[in-house]
Design goal:
Elements: E1 9-13, H1 17-28, E2 32-36, H2 40-48, E3 52-53, H3 57-61, E4 66-69, H4 74-82, E5 96-99, H5 105-117, E6 121-124, E7 127-128, H6 130-136, E8 139-143, H7 147-160, E9 161-166, H8 173-201, H9 206-213, H10 221-232, H11 241-258, H12 263-280, H13 290-296
Helix pairs in contact: 1-6, 8-10, 8-11, 8-12, 11-12
Length: 313
Amino acid sequence: MPQQSASNTIGIIGLGAMGAGMATAMRDAGLNVIGCDVSAQAREALEAQGGRCVASPKALAAECRVVVLVVVNAEQVEAVLFGDDGLAGSMAPNSLIMQCATVAPSYARSLGGRLADRGLSMLDAPISGGATKARQGELSVMASGSEAAFQLGAVALDAMAAKVHRLGDEPGAGSSVKLVNQHLAGVHIAAAAEAMALGIRMGLDPHALYDVITHSAGNSWMFENRVPHILSGDYTPLSAVDIFVKDLNLVHQTGRELTLSMPVAASALQQFTAASSAGLGREDDAAVIKVYQRLAGLTLPAANDTDHSEVTS
């Protein structure tokens, strides 16, 4: 285990499924990890594993030169960095903010400039791989930032990622690539749900249909990963409907900024929005199929005890 120092003391803000897994992977790699979350339960879970937590983002500043943000959206990023007890006003110059939330590329670029004005570096570093990969330290990181930022973040990146995609020397490129990923992921999930709804409405055995499609040209990673949730009737929110309401809205925000029409993404967004408005926003994103259940009276597979595989975004 390496000697603990400022260079291998990593702060993590956001101890949900992804952040908690990343914290554990980093601790397994010998890093000194200090967690922070608004949820007392999340803090207690990390502490029960031998980790340490602090009460506010500001409290991390005295101990960490590198802080990783694993929060949900830009609003939470703003609160963590610039709100009461925020991080940005307290960190030492030349410290690093590694920003992992899915946000608009324009916001990532703006944020990088604002942090630079305070003498702080930023890695625009969205992540993909799901909670299991986070726990294993095998995430895919879509990162952009200065060489100095990559050097500051190297220890944390080595511990959390199987692959770090270096996409440019300024914030914005990482978030741009993540947005393309989320566009495809959301469209593929919505298409998988509609395809299964079609098959069920035609009277096909959904399990047999899944077996055929996963061995045919119509398969996709999302079809293969999400449809088992439908087959088992288990909509435990490993990745929620509302995540894609948010992310596909970001796709449209960016499209408007670029004057780029994206009708396929628009259709997928409407399906996720319909699912959310029907009260399904906190269920697994595969629950978008329930829109068809309600509109067409489909009988979906009932819940059972079958575990479904880990999801990713």
